[in-house]
Specification:
81% helix; single chain; elongated; Serine Threonine Protein Phosphatase 5, Tetratricopeptide repeat; 16 helices; mainly alpha; 290 residues
């Protein structure tokens, strides 16, 4: 559909080469098609043909430049927006600058951009959410326990701003993931339940809830959650693996082996699958020798 739309836009531009709206629509379509090189050409045409989108186009073009490895050039455009744009322009540009900086490994500068965004827009869910992601990643990289608490606080702010909506579900889920990392499984379960309530087709929340239940030795309930996740996402190898593990702990060895084989076919790089297979085959051998 998007490819067809691009062809249509090209035909329209043959007749109206200075129609900035068509160039804009084509740029957005190319963005979705992940064709950054052609997208940049379109943004340049929008700049040529439009007098009122200058700052917004520069900020959006910066992301396309980043995709092509021209991150510093993209940051230069974003800096222009920060120097010359109005408040609305800056609110639009700051999350993009934070994203580029973080992907360049400059997490502290990225956090600084998000803090600046919060000064302009104190209720920015995007700023709090992205800060939560950065703090959670910092724990994964450096094992800074305090970072997880900061992440949880950020997700709580998002939830407070926009509770009981599907938009809040991802923050609630992420909070649950942070709680799992600090071994607060009971609280994490509440988060996954709430995320599922808000977004009933949230396969990841069912899977993570199953892993929590498994850790609490509630294997039958865990398997039910894994089944719900797999109904929503039948190609999720890790969830098949975790269901196999729960079956092993219930001594349902043949079922567990069959599922593990399927999990590995879906995802040959699954961690720990060899160890689980060894435990399963050892249990089978033990049974034969009884």
């Amino acid at each position: 559909m998007l490819d067809e739309a691009v062809v249509l836009y090209d035909k329209m531009l043959e007749m109206e080469p200075d129609n900035y709206q068509v160039w804009l629509d084509k740029a957005l379509a190319l963005h979705k098609l992940d064709d950054a090189k052609e997208e940049i050409k379109c943004w340049d045409e929008v700049l040529r043909t439009s007098e009122h989108l200058d700052m917004l186009v520069r900020a959006t073009k910066a992301l396309a430049l980043h995709k092509l490895g021209r991150s510093e050039e993209g940051l230069g455009l974003l800096d222009v927006v920060m120097m010359e744009g109005n408040k609305k322009d800056k609110i639009y540009a700051l999350p993009k600058k934070a994203f580029v900086l973080y992907e360049m490994g400059r997490a502290e500068e990225s956090l600084g951009c998000l803090d600046e965004l919060l000064q302009l827009d104190p209720d920015s869910q995007l700023a709090y959410f992205n800060k939560g992601v950065i703090f959670a990643d910092r724990y994964d990289i450096n094992r800074e326990r305090g970072s997880l608490q900061k992440a949880i606080e950020c997700y709580d702010r998002v939830i407070k701003i926009n509770p009981d909506t599907t938009d809040a579900a991802q923050s609630i889920y992420n909070k649950g993931m942070a709680l799992v990392r600090i071994r607060r499984s009971d609280e994490a379960l509440l988060c996954f339940d709430k995320a599922i309530q808000l977004m009933p087709d949230f396969a990841g929340a069912y899977s993570e809830k199953g892993k929590c239940l498994d850790a609490l030795d509630r294997y039958e309930e865990a398997i039910w959650c894994f089944d719900q996740a797999l109904h929503l996402d039948p190609g999720d190898g890790p969830t098949f693996y975790h269901k196999s593990r729960s079956l092993y702990l219930l001594d349902r060895i043949e079922e567990a082996l069959q599922l593990l084989d399927f999990a590995v076919k879906l995802d040959p790089l699954l961690p720990d699958h060899k160890e689980l297979r060894e435990m399963l085959t050892d249990r089978l051998e033990f049974r034969k020798n009884l």
